Amino acid sequence: MQRERADQSSVHRGPVFLRLVLLATACVSLAQTQALQPDDQPSTIHGTVVNSVTGSPISRALVFTPGNHFAMLTDGEGRFEFALPKVRNDNLSGPNGGQRYIFGPTVLMARKPGFLDHPNGQPPIEANPGAEIVLPLLPEALIKGRVISSETDLATGVQVQLFSRQVQDGTPKWLPAGSTRANSNGEFRFAELQPGTYKLMTHELLDFDPVVAVPGGQQYGFSPVYFPGVSDDAAAGTVQLTAGQTVQADIPIAHQPYFDVVIPIANPDPNTNLNVSVSMQGRRGSGYALGYNAEKQRIEGLLPNGKYLVEAATAQNSASGQVNLSVSGAPAQGPSLSLVSNSSIPVHVTEQFTASDWNGQMTWNSGGHSFQVHGPRQYLNINAESADDFGGRGASLRPPTGANDDSLLLENLPPGRYWLRASSSRGYVASATMGGVDLLRDPMVVDTGSSAPIEITMRDDTAELDGTVAGITPPAITESSSSTFTRQSPQAWVYCVPAPDSPGQFRQVGISPDGKFNATAMPPGVYRILAFANQQPNLPYRDAEAMRAYESKGQVVHLSGGQKASVQLQLIASIE
Fold first, then answer.
1. Closest Cα to residue 473, out of 23, 8, 111?
2. How far is residue 41's CA from residue 91's CA, in Å, rounded to a whole number?
3. Average of per-residue pLDDT values in the chain
4. pLDDT tens digit string along 513-529?
5. Residue 316 confidence (pLDDT)
6. Least confident of 25-39, 134-148, 381-395
């Protein structure tokens, strides 16, 4: 019998630092230096590193530039100061000729253990030599706790898993955020956490203590438990962390009997291994594990009382199967699991383009040979993303078999629920349906043997949106005798969020330094237009309930095909 076991891992602790773009120069033309004597020129870059939550200074924080040309620790009051280098200029007046200070465009960074990058990034801070610079650092959040059991000794080493609520492509999901093992006192700790929402669970721990185990007798273990002490993730509590906060999260676990379970494979392939997953009450992320015995061609292991969904997939992900299993106070044998080839869903595209001058092309490389592809594959990319809350397998388009293969096929989709994700370099996806289901709004359901095609309609009657965002300060342009330095990165970001019942599609657009933006090739629809000072990677734009927090923000626009609309926006803060 073999079992899958999660190895201990720790929360990733990469370097924590804050990048702050400091645009400053003291290079001046000869005409300017005549008006500014060398002794009057700023000679230092100085400032303070502070806690971004409390505003208090941070001592012994490292402030440095790339390559460590400048580097120093802040003093007891959080202050730092770098002396600027001088260059000789014999054309300047003064003893031994003049000297001027130079400090070209650079990046200052600050870091200290216990402090993190800001989750949405820090807006650039423009400063000149001699100006007071404030570098804020975000304090870490912590989750501490104990795994509590009456069987203290046996519970030593229970693995605790942390999940973080993150947004992927506009959809909130629970993603692994680290794991650790409880020490001999049952204590665990997760450090360097960003503000956000978290879940905790323990992994199962079987009791193989040879001192108490009786050969052939009843076996025991600790089953997986979600904080604050429930077996179902739907009923699990969440931990909401703010910057610098420490939360105590204790998890009670119970020592309970485990029973042998066996699930035969009806049509095994002796040359193929199987990946096995176990879900309690049909919900993934349960923390249970079973293994595949290739010699006996069966799934086997130990489980406590409960109802389970056991799934198996070939290592090549070409076939899969599932069975329901119930354990009730005795060893259990489930029904035979049959492996069935995963579904391949054809995609049919109807083009309703009005323009005929599109000349895009795409070259495909396969097996050392290159060839041009034709039809919708030239511009359309499609994939299926698991709609499961804890993620899962998806699928993408099958590669073309040759120059004459224009077919589109989502290959090897196991049974489940999926979001259809489509992007196009020509026009937009006006509709996508499967069996009458609107796949731009609802997930598609794939059953064993599903073959109903996805019907997609493409159009190119796009709209255009431009506007101005108030509160954007154009960067200062500082001239030197030889060049002009202007920052080209966006000053802020505009998000075009379609209404839940609108055919519009999400768009992110950068705002130029003069506060203007332009979004071309917008699919027609109703949008809420939001402007932020920073990028919003966790904006849950596909979650109508979560987006209610922005109902009073931005502007709502109705875009029809061929229309050009303009808006004026105010910068808003992100709502965490």
1. 23
2. 16
3. 82
4. 889 999 999 999 999 99
5. 78
6. 25-39
pLDDT in tens, 331-345: 999 999 999 988 889
Bridge partners of 429? 458
How far, in Å, CA of 206 to CA of 226, rounded?
17
Across residues 442-458, what is the average pLDDT? 89
- What is the spatial order of strands in the sheet that 319-327 belongs to? 274-280, 306-314, 319-327, 340-341
Average pLDDT over residues 471-483: 50
Q: How far is CA 323 from CA 78, 232, 319, in A?
A: 61, 20, 14
Nearest by Cα to 515 from 571, 553, 459 = 571
How high is the pLDDT of residue 106? 63
Per the CB < 8 A criterion, the answer to whether 43 and 26 are in contact is no
How far apart (Å, rounded) are the C-alpha atoms in residues 442 and 32?
64
Q: Is the pLDDT of residue 151 over 70?
A: no
Count CA atoms closer than 13 A to 92's CA, side-chain side: 23
- Say how far apart CA 363 and CA 370 lie, in whole Å: 6
| pLDDT for 489 beyond 80 | no
What are the strands, taking DSSP E only, across 140-204? 141-148, 159-168, 171-181, 187-193, 196-202
Q: pLDDT tens digits, residue range 175-212? A: 899 999 999 888 999 999 999 999 999 998 887 665 55
Q: How far apart are CA 88 and CA 103, in angstroms?
A: 14
pLDDT at residue 155 in the model: 66
**Pairing relationship of beta strands 251-252 and 141-148 according to DSSP bridges:** parallel
Could you tell me which residues are beta bridge partners of residue 219?
258
Largest CA distance in the chain: 97
What are the structure tokens assigned to 403, written together?
């120059």
Measure the CA–CA gap between 554 and 571, rounded to whole angstroms: 8
CA angle, residues 387, 389, 393, in degrees to nearest 5 = 50
Residue 366 CA, distance from chain mean position: 31
Query: What is the length of the chain?
Result: 576
In 140-275, where does DSSP find H-type helix?
152-155
Give SS3 for 154: helix
Peptide bond connecting 264 to the previous residue in cis, omega within 30 degrees of 0: no
Burial class (CB in 10 A: 0-12, 13-18, 19+), 442: middle
Q: Please give the structure tokens belonging to residue 64.
A: 């440095």
Token pair for 296: 């006996």
Of the CA atoms within 13 Å of residue 485, those in its CB half-sphere come to 15
Amino acid at 215: P
User: What percent of the residues of the chain are helix, what percent strand, and what percent coil, each to the nearest 5?
Assistant: 5, 50, 45
pTM: 0.78
3-state secondary structure 24-80: CCCCCCHHHHHHCCHHHCCCEEEEEEEECCCCCECCCCEEECHHHCCEEECCCCCEE
**Whether the predicted pLDDT of 350 surpasses 70:** yes
Are the C-beta atoms of residues 233 and 391 closer than 8 Å to each other?
A: no
Asked if residue 479 has pLDDT above 90, the reply is no
